[in-house]
Hints:
Blueprint: H1 2-87, H2 96-120, H3 123-128, H4 130-144, E1 148-154, H5 162-183, E2 187-195, E3 198-205, H6 219-230, E4 233-239, E5 245-252
Parallel strand pairs: 1-2
Antiparallel strand pairs: 2-3, 3-5, 4-5
Amino acid sequence: MNDKLNLTIAIAAATIVMGLLTIFVIYFVIIYRKKQRAFEWQKEMFKQALLQTEIEIKEQTLNDISRDLHDNLGQVASLIKINLNLALPNIPAGSSGKITESLDLLKQLIQDIRSLSVSLKGENLTRFGLVKMIEKDIIRYQSIGELKIDFHVIGNLPSFDKSTEIFLYRMTQEIFNNILKHAKANKVEVKMSYTNSIFQLSINDNGIGFDISQQPQGAGIINLKQRCEMIGAEFNIQSKLNQGTTINIDKKMEL
Length: 255
């Protein structure tokens, strides 16, 4: 009888110990996972803060460059134009052609400097708006070379907060910079649409393209992906050799 009682007590004690041990393990796993999630969240927040700081520094740098272009290079070019205009009447008729040609080039240079200055200064987004700023850039891109750009706005675009608007604008500049440098395209189609609470920016070129599976991701694509993450947008790129490249940036807007 005592042996059975002792066995029952031993089994009960072992069960209690196993139960307590199981509870401790479960509690430890729950605490560990909570701490792990907290660490991942802190790491993500640190990454986001670092990216935000990097973007702010870049924006300030671009603003400084914009001011220098306008205040320094623009003014110097304007002074050269004035001096040439003053000197033109005293130059023999046979030699005035080069001066007139130089004046035309200076006029174009001043316009390009002003246009570039406007595009670099993020504050102008508030003044002109995203669509108008992209239109100004398109005019400048088309003046660089033989590049035909079609720009379409579909639907009534939503209002963006300042950071989102800056990121979208800088991403269009990044994409066009890659097209001008690498794509060897002569036609680009840009679409901005807003339907069913989804904003989409789509840029397609007819350039040489590339094999995505074989091409390592460069800094340009990585920057685009990071900026999309910052504003809660999805980034998608499609490209094939000799079939151009299409980039889509989709963002679900809160109602």
